[in-house]
Design goal:
Blueprint: H1 2-25, H2 37-44, H3 48-60, E1 64-65, E2 73-74, E3 80-81, E4 85-86, H4 89-95, E5 100-111, H5 114-120, E6 127-137, E7 140-150, H6 167-174, E8 179-188, H7 191-197, E9 204-214, E10 217-227
Antiparallel strand pairs: 1-2, 3-4, 5-6, 6-7, 7-10, 8-9, 9-10
GO molecular function: DNA binding; DNA-binding transcription factor activity
Keywords: DNA-binding, Transcription, Transcription regulation
GO biological process, one term: L-histidine metabolic process
Length: 242
């Protein structure tokens, strides 16, 4: 009995590892159609129950979206969730009834600084793309985005203009992430930030700093600055069951 059950457990782990690896490595990008359960059964020579269990676990982990008629796909990563949900800035604007647009203010290809090397855990000399973007609501500055992208993880970003898709949305569609962290603070606008957001220097602003990783490698670090008087963050949650 022990000799018969061990291989089944090992096969289950191998199937999950294979599928998870393809998703997190980017080989299967968000929206990619995953082989059907029948195709996986044939490929691995296993039972329907084993494949179904793997797919259920991947779905529970937020990596796979299961659909009855069209088949399973890699989960489209349209938002990031931690203490509260972070939505696409365009969705934030349109939800308030505003007309949205964004523009890339600055775009710089360079080597990571010594500080970034330490803070982001990347190799010295790593090439990064630094972006400054403004997001508008009805032609009024809504959010300032200051972002650094690790080109070792997201090399296609170097050739992307981000004219059609804002950097955050482009990354979510092209580079699956496995871990995220964000911090929120209230700060006074510096002279530069005030100029870009059309505020007075020192005006209270809501600042969100976020980092995302893919299998331990830093994908991006972003600082989002919102005029404090016009924005608020909220979350609805339930008590923990543990």
């Amino acid at each position: 009995m022990i000799k018969e059950s061990a291989p089944r457990a090992s096969l289950h782990d191998r199937i999950r590892s294979d599928l998870e690896g393809k998703i997190l490595s980017g080989a299967w990008p968000p929206g990619h159609r995953i082989p059907t359960e029948q195709e996986l059964r044939t490929e691995y020579g296993c039972s329907r129950m084993t494949v179904n269990k793997v797919m259920t676990q991947l779905a529970n982990a937020g990596l796979v979206l299961r659909r009855r008629k069209t088949g399973s796909i890699v989960m489209p990563q349209q938002s990031q969730n931690a203490v509260l949900e972070i939505k696409d800035i365009k969705d934030e604007v349109t939800a308030q009834g505003g007309a949205y647009r964004h523009e890339v203010v600055t775009r710089t290809l360079r080597r990571a600084s010594a500080v970034e090397t330490l803070e982001l855990g990347i190799e010295p000399g790593t090439r990064v793309l630094e972006l400054t973007c403004l997001h508008y609501a009805d032609e009024a500055p809504f959010c300032l985005e200051e972002r650094v992208i690790n080109l070792a993880v997201a090399p296609d970003a170097e050739a992307e203009s981000f004219a059609e898709l804002a950097p955050g949305v482009w990354l979510l569609r092209h580079i699956p992430w496995s871990e995220a962290e964000h911090m929120i603070a209230a700060v006074g606008a510096t002279a530069r930030v005030a100029r870009l957001l059309d505020l007075s220097a020192g005006t209270p602003c809501l600042v969100m700093e976020r980092r995302t990783w893919r299998q331990g490698e830093t994908v991006t670090e972003v600082r989002l600055t919102y005029p404090g008087a016009a924005n608020r963050l909220s979350a609805r949650f339930a008590p923990s069951t543990t």
